[in-house]
Amino acid sequence: MGLIRKRFLNGDHIYGCSQCATHLAPKDGIMSTAFQGQNGRAYLFRAVVNIIEGPAQERPMTTGKHVVCDIECMECHQVVGWRYIKAYEESQRYKEGRFILEKKLLTLLS
User: What residues does the Yippee domain cover (predicted)?
Assistant: First the structure.
């Protein structure tokens, strides 16, 4: 196993982990702000960096059954959201490969 390097994102308005401020995603990477997480409001992102993915698991959600994996900050290991791996309903397939970050677990940097 090699050394894991933390990525630093450039630009204004970067979301970071609320616990350790590790960069996670640029604000302009938000696809939707109309999501609900376990801790309240959540955002759907195209891509996220500096995370570790947990094991895949099937989870019933308000929009149907999905296969997801929890994602945690690679620095402090706080769970910050999840990644959609598979959506069973055709109308939800746009979520596949996308990430949910919970607003309460984020801090807006710069």
Answer: 13-110
pLDDT of amino acid 110: 73
Residue 76 neighbours by CB distance under 10 Å? 13
**Total-model pTM:** 0.92
In angstroms, the Cα distances linking 66 to 19, 20, 28, 93, 94 are 28, 29, 25, 10, 12
The pair of structure tokens assigned to 99 is 């990430």
Instruction: Pull the structure tokens for residue 73.
Output: 């900050």
Nearest to 101 by CA among 56, 57, 36: 36
Q: What CATH architecture does domain 14-109 belong to?
A: Beta Complex (2.170)
In angstroms, the CA 41 to CA 37 distance is 6
Q: How many whole angstroms separate alpha carbon 20 and alpha carbon 107?
A: 9
Tokens for 104, please give them: 């309460």
